[in-house]
From TrEMBL:
Membrane-protein topology: Single-pass membrane protein
Intracellular or extracellular location(s): Endoplasmic reticulum membrane; Microsome membrane
Keyword field contains Hydrolase: no
Domain Cytochrome b5 heme-binding, first and last residues per copy: 4-80
MF GO annotations: heme binding; metal ion binding
Highest rank taxon of the organism: Eukaryota
Family: Belongs to the cytochrome b5 family.
CC terms in the record's Gene Ontology section: endoplasmic reticulum membrane
Signal peptide as annotated in the record: none
Entries under SMART domains matching the protein: Cyt-b5 (SM01117)
Name this polypeptide is given: Cytochrome b5
Pfam assignment, any one: Cyt-b5
């Protein structure tokens, strides 16, 4: 029995602005609301993919091992 919360894409899509910003990367759901101002690429990039699957965008940029480590603390669940 896993205690990882499951979210639907419809639930993620509801969190699509700067007040509540969720994204999906590789079937994991992240609440990056508090990370917007810290994002090295700028907050606009996160807002562009708010409420969406950002896997392709994330991989295209080639994020570092450090970036992948940082994002773990923002994970709130998995895609159902």
């Amino acid at each position: 029995m896993s205690d990882v919360k499951k979210y639907t894409m419809a639930e993620v899509a509801e969190h699509n602005d700067k007040k509540s910003l969720w994204i999906v990367i590789d079937k994991s759901v992240y609440d990056v609301t508090k990370f917007q101002n810290e994002h090295p690429g700028g907050e606009e990039i996160l807002r562009d993919v708010a409420g969406k699957d950002a896997s392709e965008d994330f991989e295209d940029v080639g994020h570092s091992a450090d970036a992948r480590k940082i994002m773990k603390k923002y994970k709130i669940g998995d895609l159902a």
